[in-house]
Design a protein that fits this description.
With 341 residues, the chain is of the alpha/beta class. The chain is built from 13 helices and 14 strands. The longest helix has 18 residues.
């Protein structure tokens, strides 16, 4: 099966007065039809810049230096802007993390959905409104006929997020990019939104690129996981394999940093091990492996040599010098948080 999205050697840099910030530095990633791939990592690792690069919506200081982004066989980096603009919204949907700032505050939410349909599918006003109301029903918005004429500030965060999902879904895209889609929501509402995304993915056979730092969400939603650190993907694996046998020390650190509630004789206790150190300055990266200043397994070689991908079975990859020596042996075989199908 050919990938729906094939990213090859992508480098996106920001050119500032103080130097060059390497936000994405040689990224390779495939997404196949109907699957959900989670891109995870700490804030500042390059996840959102990767998403913006895919649809060519970088701020003025950002530039894609090299690489290819093939979507349905077309290289989005060589297409004219007019063609890329037609793909955005129609073939690739985008769900942003802050629905209040993503929606137009002076336009009714229903009109914002209808605008997408009129622009990309050339629908008339009446047809676009009817279709928009149906979309609002599809994403389980209550009383969509009435909500059509409401403004974003009149809705709760969860309802606004459902409106964004309706906009992303409007043209039945092949791929949806969901950038931290539940960050600003209460835990109970997060569960509802995740269940909705899962339902819509299966109903419409949509591929999803899920960008998040929340590994508990990843365990529920993703088929595969790509772990990003300092602009590079340092490990890729199926969700089950990544959670049960993390191979990169950074992946293991992320998993063990997730709080768990254990019940003991003395009551509930939160169990987690914080990941030490800080994300490196992308304008002044360490020599060798960028993770070595925080790595418990690092040695002198890690300070000098940049690790390359080690390719394992089932498409699994890891960038770690220790795995180049013995890539069958994970750092520890203790799952940090339970993986559930």
């Amino acid at each position: 099966m050919k990938p729906l999205l094939h990213i090859q050697s992508l480098k996106t840099y920001f050119f500032k007065k103080g130097g060059v910030l390497k936000a994405v530095d040689g990224l390779d990633l495939d997404i196949y039809p109907g699957e959900t791939v989670a891109l995870v990592g700490e804030s500042g690792s390059g996840k959102t810049v990767t998403a913006l690069s895919l649809v060519r919506l970088l701020p003025p200081t950002g530039r894609i230096v090299t690489g290819n982004i093939f979507f349905r066989g077309r290289d989005l980096l060589t297409l004219p802007e007019k063609q890329v603009a037609a793909i955005r919204g129609r073939e690739i949907g985008f769900i942003l993390q802050d629905p209040l700032s993503a929606l137009n505050p002076v336009m009714c939410v229903g009109q914002q959905i209808a605008e997408v349909l009129r622009h990309h599918l050339s629908m008339g006003r009446k047809e676009a409104k009817e279709y928009s109301v149906n979309l609002m029903e599809t994403v389980h918005l209550p009383n969509p006929g009435k909500l059509f004429s409401t403004y974003p500030h009149e809705l709760s965060g969860g309802l606004r997020q459902r409106v964004l999902i309706a906009i992303a879904l409007a043209c039945r895209p092949a791929l949806i990019i969901a950038d931290e889609p539940t960050t600003a929501l209460d835990v109970s509402i997060q569960g509802q939104i995740l269940a909705l995304l899962k339902e819509l993915k299966e109903q419409f056979s949509i591929s999803v690129l899920l960008i998040t730092h929340d590994l508990s969400i990843v365990s529920q939603m993703a088929d595969r996981v790509a772990v990003m650190y300092a602009g590079k993907i340092v490990e890729q694996a199926s969700t089950r394999n990544l959670f049960t046998t993390p191979l990169h020390p950074y992946t293991e650190g992320l998993l063990h940093a997730v709080p768990r509630i254990d019940f003991s004789e003395n009551g509930r206790t939160g169990q987690f091990t914080p990941l030490g150190g800080n994300v490196p300055d992308l304008m002044n990266l360490p020599s060798g492996c960028a993770f070595h200043p925080r790595c418990l397994l690092g040695d002198q070689l890690c300070k000098k040599k940049i690790p390359q991908d080690v390719f394992l079975n089932n498409g699994r990859t890891v960038k770690c010098l220790r795995r180049e020596e013995n890539h069958e042996k994970p750092a520890r075989r203790i799952p940090a948080i339970p993986y559930t199908d």
